[in-house]
Amino acid sequence: MNHPGATDIKAMAWTAVGLGKPHESAALHVLGQATYTDDIPELRGTLHAALGLSSKAHANILAVDLDAVRAAPGVAAVYTAKDIPGTNDCGPIIHDDPILADGKVEYVGQPIFIVVADTHDNARRAARRANVTYEELPAILTPQAAKAAQSYVLPPMQLKRGDYQAAFEQAPRTVKGTLYVGGQEQFYLEGQIAYAIPKEQNGMQVLCSTQHPSEMQHVVAHALGVHSHHIQVECRRMGGGFGGKESQSALWCAAAAIAAKKTGRPVKLRADRDDDMLVTGKRHCFYYEYEVGYGDDGRIIAAKVDMVSRAGYSADLSGPVATRAVCHFDNTYYLSDVDIRAACGKTNTQSNTAFRGFGGPQGAIAIEYIIDEIARELGQDAYDIRRLNFYGKDERNVTPYGQVIVDNVIAELTAELEQSSEYRARRAAIAAYNATSPLLKKGLALTPLKFGIAFNVTHLNQAGALVHVYVDGSVLVNHGGTEMGQGINTKVLQVVAHELGLDLEYVRITATDTSKVANTSATAASTGADLNGKAAQDAARQIRERLSAYAVKLYGGDAAAVQFYDNRIHVNGHAVPFAELVQKAYLARVQLWSDGYYATPHLHWDPKTMNGHPFSYYAYGAAVSEVVVDTLTGEWKLLRADALYDAGQSLNPAIDIGQVEGAFIQGMGWLTTEQLWWNAGGKLMTHAPSTYKIPGVSDCPEDFRVRLFENRNVEDSIHRSKAVGEPPLLLPFSVFFAIRDAISAVGGHKVNPPLNAPATAEEILKAIAAVEVAVEVAVEAAAKRGGVSSTDMP
Predict the structure, then answer these.
(1) How do residues 733-789 score in pLDDT, each as one tens digit?
(2) Catalytic residue (choose from 483, 661, 726, 763)
(3) Which of 18, 151, 183, 624 has its CB 3.0 to 4.6 Å from that of 346, i.e. a possible disulfide?
């Protein structure tokens, strides 16, 4: 019998969460043994599909001649919209997104037909033999053009608080301007893919790479004209998703399933990288017009912003993306009187979709740009203006959409980062460097973030899980989240192991499967571990309670005092091996499996008034970046980055730090190198690695310091942790504004550089040229006034 005091100490010390454990598939990844959809052995008789794509941005289809396609080597069948058994639609919210174009095409790359052949290559080659006759129509390609034409996929939205106009008119100072921030290709390592296998009684199994198996189940059922229970969708893991496989895996799943249904044979549809980039949507690019009133000290008094995104040809998820942009325009700043508008421009381009951050980064970067402008106008450090405008704790703590902030740690977090990054000393050192360096200019910026965690659509904040305990004491877990490399399975595994007091090797997680956990939400909005971790914990807790009650029957004591740790159940002075008690419980007919469920509490949102409590809590963070810019070429380099992120009481610090690092570099790519370019005919010309520049290892800073802020979530999240998927993507705002700071040094920090994103070398040179022209104009004006003073010269 163990001493009770010793038992309690061991119980308190033992944990399966909060530890930096390796990813549950890490060894498989390294050995090349992790199974992705394309690795699944193909069944005998499997056919391969490819899509025939539009070559016009906007046109009526007058004729489609597919004779050459049918005659191509290896072709088994060709299908058009009229061959779809059910509904020709794969739109996630509004049904305006056909699987196959029918009578009209609305972007270059829109699928018109499916060709099925004996091999992948034969299908792709055949797809290019079609002869399509078009009647071209005028095309809208940019958000600016969409706004001018009042071309929208959804009605524009507006959030107002206070009396913006009166506050703006009374403000001592004002700033007005425009900004353009480009989109971004998800560039997941594994492309879009679906493998559809016909089953008996109208059944269809779809193995695919998707963040939203339940949505794929619905789309495929509708396309085939059957019930959801006929469709089983399974996803063990993805080679990256980043939002690009939330709604837009639907087209590929539906096309594969249609072909499998029609042929009666398994069909695999694997997108080539070029086709994937031509067909699928990206992060929404945004165009902003803003005007802000502020005081002589830099405090914002009134703010107005009009945002229009490039939605593409259909609504997809553009509405929720715009809503999140509106709700993140404030970022970490209290805005008393606001007029925030957002519109989703209908353009003849790919229908844009979810991307890590989901509108949050696009909303927040606008206010950061504005604050950067204000600071330069006042001759102040932008970080000081940011601090002045921070949300307060007990006052100035209500967002424009009405949510009271109860977990604000941004002042403490940024103060810690300011000190650890030696921000003030480096700012002085950079000023000294720039004073003696005419061609190379350094820049420094410290930017904060506040990111709301939850789906904006309240009913999506729910999850389910199954936990099975087998007679040998091993545990199998299934939940509704999907693994895309971010570590959700590892975290859920840790949660269940912790609840049952087991080492991680005793717990295993299986593929996400609509036949196991039904009606799941997408793994998105940074809610994956929050929702599914809670659901799995709920299931494991029920088993734990049953085992506790049974243990007390055997050994006496109080069920509430039974403890599970170190692979044993500790009851009334006895330490019983977990497997031993499980075997006895089975013989006693104790239920050893359970379902779990979780719904995030206290959420509500009125989309008409754009008011409510849409977020469970906020994640915070900040970063300091130092860059050097070559003013002759526009080239730049990130010299050092310091990031501090609030992951709450982290479930797995190793995974969370990795997520912060990855998000930082991905966000840096969005703001600096990843330029999407459509030609005059509406064709995306940056549709391959040869023309689209994602960051490489050489773009990472040699000095990269990432830490987690010590904090504990005030909300009852899973073990008081905080989400870490999307929020860190805002950290590289610091890179963009450090580049702008370096450009500003060309004009002695007296001119606001007109820098758009991505800040490519060309954009940097354009901004430098604009600063130089502004300086020349200022000097000439001063000369005409009767001399040039030191204050006129940079």
Answers:
(1) 999 999 999 999 999 999 999 999 999 999 999 999 999 999 999 888 888 887 555
(2) 726
(3) 151
Single-letter residue type at 692 = Y
Alpha helix segments (H runs only) across 1-94: 4-13, 26-31, 67-70
As given in the structure block, the two tokens for residue 22 are 């390796």
**CA dist., res. 10 & res. 301, Å (int):** 55
Is the distance from CB of 382 to CB of 341 less than 8 angstroms?
no
Looking only at the bridges linking them, the beta strands covering 231-235 and 204-208 are parallel
Question: What is the rounded distance in angstroms from the CA atom of residue 364 to the CA atom of residue 706?
Answer: 22
Q: What share of the chain is helix, strand, coil (3-state, %, to 5)?
A: 35, 25, 40
Q: What is the DSSP string of 648-683?
A: BS-S-HHHHHHHHHHHHHHHHHHHHT----B-TTS-
Are 171 and 301 in contact by the 8 Å Cβ rule? The answer is: yes
Q: What is the DSSP letter of 152?
A: B
For the chain, count helices (H), then strands (E).
Answer: 20, 29
CA 327 to chain centre: 16
The pair of three-digit structure tokens given for residue 726, joined into one six-digit string: 């999307």
pLDDT at residue 793, as a whole number: 47
DSSP state of 713: -
For the chain, the residue count is 794
For residue 11, the model assigns a pLDDT of 80
CA separation (Å) from 454 to 23, 101, 358, 614? Answer: 24, 34, 12, 7
340 Cβ contact partners less than 8 Å away, ≥ 6 residues apart: 158, 159, 160, 303, 304, 305, 307, 326, 329, 400
User: Under a CB-based contact definition with an 8 Å cutoff, are residues 409 and 620 in contact?
Assistant: yes
HEC sequence for 174-220? EEEEEEEECCECCCCCCCCEEEEEECCCCCEEEEECCCCHHHHHHHH
In 708-760, which residue ranges form alpha helices assigned H by DSSP?
733-745
Residue 95: what residue type? H
Cβ atoms of residues 130 and 64 within 8 Å: yes
Q: Is 135 a catalytic residue?
A: no
CB 685 within 8 A of CB 677: yes
Write the pLDDT tens digit of every residue in 242-270. Answer: 999 999 999 999 999 999 999 999 999 99
